[in-house]
Amino acid sequence: MPLTSTMHPTVGEAFLKRDRAGRALAANSERIALACREMAARFRRGGKLIVFGNGGGGADAAHIAVEFMHPVIVGKEALPALALSNDSATVTGLSSREGFAEAFAHQVRRWADPADMALGISRDGRCENVLRALEAARELGLFTLALVGGGGGAIMRDRAADHILVADSDDPAVVKEIHVTMYHVVWELVHVLFEQPGLIGDGGAG
Amino acid sequence: MSMLEEPRGGGACGFPSFLYPGQADLGSVLAEARRSTEEKAAEIVRLRWQVAEMAGDELAECAQEMAIRFASGGRLFAFGNGGSSTDAQEVATTFLYPAYGLSLPALSLTGDVAVVTALSNDVGFDVVFARQLAALGRRGDIAVGLSTSGGSFNVLQAFEEASRRGMLTIGLAGDQGGKLAGLGLLDYLFVIPSSSVHRIQEAQTTLYHVLWELTQHALGAVPAPQVHDAG
């Protein structure tokens, strides 16, 4: 069937709005490298990665966990990671009785060991349960990393994580796309550094 | 999820092999890490434009077809393995609970662990999506399958089932398109021309988001200012 006349310009606009945010990602390269150095050291000490987010961010949490648990590159070591948004019984149970804001913080408190890492995803930085889980993780001495977008919301305002990576867009779809590249790069660099224990130390950075 | 290996020279992950014997100092490794990140950021920006160039017309046409199905009561089913299973979830939630516009019926076939493990245990992993489509799907529905390699058997079988049922079939693959390209029964197949699983997934994410935006556009929805997002 013939396309409506406005479809083609819309395709161009859709790709154009991704260009700027995609280019802006490079500005995070220093922050990414420093975060990965500490993560590699913590994995070396036996730490595990605990990941959480809401909506599509929950899907990202699962993606990150499987990325570490089942490396796509043959020969890479599987590193321990757990997504807190996967278990709908726990998430709905907690939300029902404790409130949705506690959905992840409660799980972080039960699972966390001091060498662990917490990674929270919130496309606008305003997710209360992600913020609370990051705060709980920090209190327990975990490494904390947040992936946010837009202005970074409360997570940025409160500096709720040791490391915060911002996708430079207000569009949640575009923010997700930048986040996917960010966590793919994080996974790669963690492995590169993990394989150089002499450089990262045995966790002194953590 | 594909097991494609990153076919890059030197060390794994695109790092020059000289970094691997452990003789480099931390400063140079971190500098190399920054350079690698910048290179990958540039690579995905280029790849997105390449996809826009190659598939722009087809994306607009495909979204138009999806809009017709939704307007007639069609539902969307999304499926994939590993990282692509999380993309299937993202596709479903993007249509069902959108940032703006119309909420449309969409379901990820990877979300129900009871169904997935029961089918895998009792019948086999290859049928894990096809059986769900056989039970839930009907003529006029939409099947969206993701496979970075294009070779996932359960995705191929699901498309065969979807096609038999008269569903609109949309495949997202990478590299050369794998077996999905040879299937010959897909209404639309979008192949991301890259050999990196990571870049393929990133470009696929853009591709299905753009398909969603264009579907909303075709249904007359107008983007609202971005205020708050659940994700």
UniProtKB/TrEMBL annotation, chain A:
<dbReference type="GO" id="GO:0016853">
    <property type="term" value="F:isomerase activity"/>
</dbReference>
<dbReference type="InterPro" id="IPR046348">
    <property type="entry name" value="SIS_dom_sf"/>
</dbReference>
<dbReference type="GO" id="GO:0097367">
    <property type="term" value="F:carbohydrate derivative binding"/>
</dbReference>
<keyword id="KW-0413">Isomerase</keyword>
<dbReference type="InterPro" id="IPR035461">
    <property type="entry name" value="GmhA/DiaA"/>
</dbReference>
<feature type="domain" description="SIS">
    <location>
        <begin position="39"/>
        <end position="199"/>
    </location>
</feature>
<dbReference type="Pfam" id="PF13580">
    <property type="entry name" value="SIS_2"/>
</dbReference>
<dbReference type="InterPro" id="IPR050099">
    <property type="entry name" value="SIS_GmhA/DiaA_subfam"/>
</dbReference>
<protein>
    <submittedName>
        <fullName>Phosphoheptose isomerase</fullName>
    </submittedName>
</protein>
<dbReference type="GO" id="GO:1901135">
    <property type="term" value="P:carbohydrate derivative metabolic process"/>
</dbReference>
<dbReference type="InterPro" id="IPR001347">
    <property type="entry name" value="SIS_dom"/>
</dbReference>
TrEMBL record, chain B:
<feature type="domain" description="SIS">
    <location>
        <begin position="66"/>
        <end position="221"/>
    </location>
</feature>
<protein>
    <submittedName>
        <fullName>Phosphoheptose isomerase</fullName>
    </submittedName>
</protein>
<dbReference type="GO" id="GO:1901135">
    <property type="term" value="P:carbohydrate derivative metabolic process"/>
</dbReference>
<dbReference type="InterPro" id="IPR035461">
    <property type="entry name" value="GmhA/DiaA"/>
</dbReference>
<dbReference type="GO" id="GO:0097367">
    <property type="term" value="F:carbohydrate derivative binding"/>
</dbReference>
<dbReference type="Pfam" id="PF13580">
    <property type="entry name" value="SIS_2"/>
</dbReference>
<keyword id="KW-0413">Isomerase</keyword>
<dbReference type="InterPro" id="IPR046348">
    <property type="entry name" value="SIS_dom_sf"/>
</dbReference>
<dbReference type="GO" id="GO:0016853">
    <property type="term" value="F:isomerase activity"/>
</dbReference>
<dbReference type="InterPro" id="IPR050099">
    <property type="entry name" value="SIS_GmhA/DiaA_subfam"/>
</dbReference>
<dbReference type="InterPro" id="IPR001347">
    <property type="entry name" value="SIS_dom"/>
</dbReference>
